[in-house]
Every structure is written in structure tokens, then in C-alpha cells.
Predict the structure.
Amino acid sequence: MVAIDGPAGAGKSTVTRKVAERLGYVIVDTGALYRLVALAAELSGVSFDDAEGASELAEALVAEHAVQLRRTSSGSTQVLLRGKDVSLSIRSQTIGQGASKVSAHPGVRHALLELQRDAGKQGGVVLEGRDIGTVVFPDAEAKFYLTASVDVRAQRRHDELAARGTPPSLDEVLSEVSERDHRDSMRPVAPLRQAEDAILVDSSALSIEQVVEQIVAAVQSVERRLAASQ
């Protein structure tokens, strides 16, 4: 099991997909689960700041088995809400901010914890998020903390939004990334932090392929060590 944590804009989604492809592992995009709760909240008229309402909504989604993550033939993750593909809808800037807010509610995190653990039980998986190596799977065999400077992450996020249409200004994106970093790091439950045994990967001056190579090499080293111990 590979756990990749890190702040917004560090490139976790792209790196996770490529690492999974190289290793033949399955992707479990835990961040997508919180984005999905945020989207469901928006559709239901529940405020992102409403801890009780968002928690009840998350519990209902889990109880209804309304959330599904599917691996496509291309290796990407398809996100379904009550059978509807919402993979693109959850990637909007508004839902990204909403995900950061709803993920701070203990009830939401509790509701999704077992869902995440169930998804990773079969092994041979790569999970990305903000508390995978510290809370969800503290015993993961390979842990990484992927980050980059806030300026680099803001520029990447700005470029991503620009590719989808008319983006906000770079200053606005920088402000939002900084605000999200603070909120994710200071939340009382499962705050964003590097696990003590996680390998730090700073992608500020690295290409995606260089990051992937570094992580794959480390995972393969772990695989060899585990095989030798059996």
C-alpha cells in the first residue's frame, strides 16, 4: 500500500495516477470523496460550514452506498454519485474550497474513514489525500509527503483552471491556496501534516516524471524488502 499526502496543488492526483500505472496498482482518490460530499452538500442546499448537516449528509451517502470510485480503462478514477458520473463536477474551484471546509468536520471524517479503509484493504493500491499516512492507513508500507512552494502550487492551480476556461487571477488563486493550507493544517481532526516515517518529496523544481521516478523507486525498494522478509 502506498500513501501519498500533501497540500493542494502539489500534484498528488497526477503523480498518484502515474505511480499506479507504473506499479500496476489501483488508485483510491480519497480527496475525491470529500469533494463529492461538498458537491452533494451544494446540491442539497447544505452549507459547507454546517458541521451537523454535512456530517448527516456524509453518513447518509455512505449508508445508501451512493458513492462509488471506479478505475477506467485509461487508469483514471471515475467518481459516481448515486450512479451519476460527477468526475468533472467535483473538480471546480468552488467544490475544492467546499471539500476543505467539510473535511474539517469530525462527523464527515468519521463517516468516510471506514469507506476509505475498505477501499484499501485489498492491497496493491495507491491512496492520496491529506491524512492517509497519519490517520487512515498509519501502517502503510510506503508513505510519501508530496509538497511544493505555495507560489508554485498556486501557479499550477491557476494553469489548471485556465485550461478549463476563464480562471481567476493568480493573486486570487494564491490567496485561496494559502487559506486552504492554513485551514487544512489547523483543523482539530486529522490535520494536514507529514507522517514521521513518510518520505518528503518537494516537487517545486522537479518534473512530474522525476517525482514519479523517485516514488516508484522507493516503493520498489520496499517491495523487495518485504519479499525478502517472507
Observations:
- The CA atoms of residues 35 and 96 lie 6 Å apart.
- The radius of gyration is 17 Å.
- The chain has a mean pLDDT of 90.
- The first strand starts at residue 2 and ends at 5.
